[in-house]
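ok so I'm stuck.
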Amino acid sequence: MLQKDTILLAPGIFDALGMMLVENAGFDAAYLSGASLAYTRHGSPDIGLVTMTEVAETVSLIREKSELPLIVDADTGYGNAINTQRTVKLFERCGAYAIQL
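replied:
not stuck anymore, here's the structure
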């Protein structure tokens, strides 16, 4: 997809239903926003409350319904360099196609 000369549109989602709507609308990818998880899971602004495991669980739940490419917001990696490596490996295992740090 990144090799194409077109812009990749990836609407933001926060759950599997959102992914299914994006897929049914014909988009080629979706973006799992950390801020949207903060709003919908915690009812709070994006102030660092969402954990790595909450995001990983959400990615796994989304993957149960769709294989559409998913870009995942990994915040700052949830800690230091070693934590960031762990985050990337976990999100890859859960089904992230790309990760934003």
